[in-house]
Amino acid sequence: MNHYDPQPENNKPKYKGKYRIDSTRLPAWSYASNAGYFVTICTNGKKCFFGEVVQGEMQRSPIGEIAQKLWCEIPNYFSNCQIDSFCVMPNHIHGILIINQIREGDAMNPQTQEEDAMNRVSTSQRGDGERGGVTGLFNPMLSKNSLSKIVRWYKGRCTFEINQIYEGFGWQERFHDNIIRNEFARDRIRQYIINNPINWERDCEQPPHPPL
């Protein structure tokens, strides 16, 4: 039996603060910078709106199909963003987003763009004592077509379309992200995403992101 149709209920006191994700964002890093980002977005109260896992395979509900479709549409609205591995799970979505501000001369070479994005990640302290990244004390999440803006569009579009067929859907206020520092880390995260449905029975009560 498919149990993906959750019933709305007044549970705000029960869930207040319980699933809040503390910010892990680097205050001196511009999240519009060329880099790969591992993103996890949870539903409000971790309700299983998107479907269920059956024998290690994700069975998406109609709501889950909308979440899947709109994730695939992100590059259509943000030309500086490519999608990599992703997975819609019952109460969250994992995905790798690669931000590439295309430079003149690289537009015809997607491989160069992707390698550039992965190789330019730097989050360490600089020798002059300033915080890392490329922007000093620049506000990290307000840039044009930044990670925050992309995720905000995705969450808003999902909410709008899903509420056409089911009133009561919502997202957790924040989202979790990690800057992917190299190819090795990206391969590990890809494997984690692929294995997420298989590990659902074991991991469904754990925070929906891997230890990095």
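Second entry:
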Amino acid sequence: MDRPDAGHLSGMAQTPIKAWAGPVSEEAVHPPPDPHRERFEEVFGAHREAVLGYLRRRTDSGHDAADLLADTFLVAWRRLDDVPPGNQTRPWLYGVARRVLANHRRGEGRRHALATKLRQELTELDTADTALPDDTPAARAFRALPEQDRELLSLVAWEELDTAQIATVLGISSNAVRIRLHRARKRFAKLPHRPAGEPEPGRPQRRDLT
């Protein structure tokens, strides 16, 4: 009887042998239904349009209504055990939507109040920051300065920053700020911008440029 050669045995050793896993269960192929998910999908499918209409009639934006609808049904998903059956389901969802809408309106109210406050403050700042009107000699002298000088003097007079803060803004050392500011003030003082009887030049209402 012929004996198998070494090459044949080597090839057999390299061939993987798959274990028989046995029959595949039906549950592995088709997981059992999730009653929680099925209940939610039933509620969502039956009441989505009604809740969306409730929200849409109470908002100015379809996008807002869609976001609020998602928030409403997120609550329903989390509290599914509290959702009553039958003809009480929709009123319960309306109650959730009402609270979600109230939270949304409170947030909108805070945002509108903040926006109004900021607009008022910016209007007041625009009025206050016109310390150098365009038609004054001082304003013309200020515009005649190099851009670097204008930036330095503006940071002092309008933003009310000190030397260290200006250094942070410009990314230079405090010593460099002091030197540049001294030179900018000297250049500003030399420019013709003070009519007879006018006080010290270049003094905006907030801080002194010189």
